[in-house]
Amino acid sequence: MLIPILEKHASASRTSIALQACDNALTYADLWAEISRVRAYFSELSQPVISLALDNHPAWVVADLAAMACNIPLVPLPLFFSDSQLLHAMLDAGVTTLLTDQPERFSQILGDFIFQKSTLIIAGKRLMQYDVRIPAKRLPSNTAKITYTSGTTGAPKGVCLSIQAMLNVAQSAALQANIHAGSRHVCILPLSTLLENVAGVYASLLAGATVHILPSEQVGLCGSSLNIEKLHSTLANTQANTAIFIPELLGALVSALETGAAKLSHLRFLAVGGAHVSKKLLQRAAALNIPVFEGYGLSESASVVALNTEKTNKIGSVGKPLPHVVIQFSEENEILVKGANLLGYTGETAKEITDSFIKTGDIGYMDDEGFLFINGRKKNIFITSFGRNVSPEWVESALLNAPEILQVCLFGEAKPWNIALIVTKPGVTSLLVSRAIEETNKQLPDYARITKWLLADAPFSVKNSQLTLNGRLKRDVISAAYKEKMNDLYKETA
After folding, report:
1. Minimal CA–CA distance to 157: which of 93, 209, 218, 70?
2. Smallest Cα–Cα separation from 447: which of 400, 383, 379, 378?
């Protein structure tokens, strides 16, 4: 259990820094004292389900750990979600209490659900507490965290995880990345991201390491935009030994180092995951002696499933399964995972799945040396280079509400933004298409929005092999037909 270990660290390593922020630090003794204080406060709440909606800060970690100590289900809310997605998550999980540093946004989102407001100071940060009237939901027994991904639709499912499942991953990650007392981890991804929360923070705290936690804007992340100068400066100033990246961040860092940015010799283990990483990018990183190790995981397995390490690394693979993980393959070569499984999903009838194999939706294989390779996704869902899941049908359906648009096919796999290939009614101008896209984008979170578009040479049809007989888009055929044009668009803004 993480909580007893933190209590031991507070006694044995009282003055060691646990959490380092911009302007203050918490030693392990300070961290334990703050967890204990907030735990006492949370224990007075009536049958709570707590949600966190705040930027990266030690307060996030303290509230998370205090809820864990009280066995209170906690719902991390990604701030990059749209307002409708945020409300869906809170209603879906039966949230009773929200802690946020963005009161204006959440006052509008929650509206009449709010029945009481107060403030709570955690780790020196003043948070708004909203107590809300949301119907309770039946959750699987031992639910400690309910995590929502970026969603393949506008209403993603809540994945219910136990403390033990998350700690299995954290312990394995700490071992594989050789995290120890004296190590320094810097949080780059939002703490609401399960990967950073479990494999970053929990793994580091288990080992007695220091975790640097800075606001997202300061580390160079703002929504789906990136400031590489700030990111590089953060890595340099914190003297971080470990960090977790998504492919988009790795690509930017590699480019910066190739063009003269100062080397980061203190960086020892840079994990990258969340989406496919090109072999070429990994080779460029290797040429610069960047210690990059690709991994693979899913929320249903409490984040990390497989990971390359310093001792076992094969470029092109996602590494070997973590010690607690068992992997099998279906007849269709779909990857099946067991180990640290979810307890269930919100809104579903309880069922025992913790000891079953989970269908990942990914196609792959394992080589003779035990390295796992991913060939693609079973469904049409694509993952952007920022690690956001996008269902193209979701975006396409929204755009087809515009009367000017007859057909649309969305692309964005492993890219920083999405391209729409569009068929319009005769006589429709580019201005009208742009306006339709603008209106559609207002309904979508930033990672799902259409950034660029192309007019198709001809309607998608059975005749040109771009439609099935029942009218479904043949995405691979369409992609091949317009590959060069789409690549040119990406090059224009590279």
Report:
1. 93
2. 383
Q: Are 250 and 272 in contact (CB under 8 A)?
A: yes
Q: Are 159 and 146 in contact (CB under 8 A)?
A: yes
DSSP track, 8-76: HHHHHSTTSEEEE-SS-EEEHHHHHHHHHHHHHHHTTSSS--EEEE--SSHHHHHHHHHHHHTT--EEE
Residue 316's nearest CA partner among 286, 294, 334, 331 is 294
324-357 pLDDT per residue, tens: 999 999 998 999 999 889 999 998 755 545 568 9
Q: Are residues 39 and 154 in the same domain?
A: yes
In tens, the pLDDT along 374-399 reads 987 777 888 899 998 888 888 998 89
Query: Does residue 384 lie in a domain region?
Result: no
Residues 364 and 404 in one domain: no
pTM of the model: 0.85
Domain of residue 449, CATH code: 3.30.300.30
In 10 A of CB 450, how many CB atoms?
24
Question: Hunting for tokens 């796992």 — which residue is that?
Answer: 372
State the number of CA atoms in the 13 A half-sphere of 376 facing the CB.
6
Q: Which domain holds residue 409?
A: 391-492
For residue 16, which amino acid is it?
S
Task: Return mean pLDDT, the chain.
Answer: 92
Residues 446, 452, 455, 461, Cα dihedral to 10°: -50
Contact 101, 125 (CB under 8 A): yes
Q: In which band, very low, low, confident or very high, does the pLDDT at 89 lie, cut at 50, 70 and 90? A: very high
Tokens 């009838």 belong to 349
What tokens does 141 get? 């027994």
β pairing state of 125-132 and 97-100: antiparallel
